[in-house]
Specification:
single chain; about 120 residues; mainly alpha; Four Helix Bundle (Hemerythrin (Met), subunit A)
């Protein structure tokens, strides 16, 4: 399986709980804001990675993961933890590989949620 074929999973129970707690309209607003924030934080993380700022990257990835977890993007959280582990190990090659994977998983996860919203599921 190529990396781009890696499945993206959205925790439907997490989204259902959000709708049950907030109602459909408010949950949709929260989800949209979370998606925007994820995109912004991924961009910030990319800049920090490019600048070689490991501590800032670690904070940005942690923040990104907390938001992703709240909207059921657990794979983003797992890959983010991998990035953090590679940063802690001081392995620049592994950081490059896992950060690239985090970017792919984030992009595909955001697309999956966007597609769900436009289909109304």
């Amino acid at each position: 399986m190529y990396a781009s074929d890696e499945p993206v999973r959205v925790d439907q129970q997490c989204l259902t709980a959000l709708v049950d707690e907030l109602g459909a309209d408010e949950a949709g607003d929260v989800l949209f804001r979370a998606m925007e924030e994820l995109a912004v934080r991924l961009s910030v993380a990319d800049s920090l990675y490019t600048e070689g700022q490991a501590d800032g990257l670690k904070r940005a990835v942690g923040s990104l993961c907390r938001i992703a977890g709240q909207i059921g993007l657990h794979e983003v959280c797992r890959v983010g933890a991998d990035v953090t582990g590679c940063l802690d190990a001081g392995d620049p090659v592994a950081v490059a590989a896992t950060f690239a994977r985090l970017q792919r998983v984030c992009d595909r996860s955001l697309t999956a949620i966007w597609d769900m919203q436009t289909r109304g599921t």
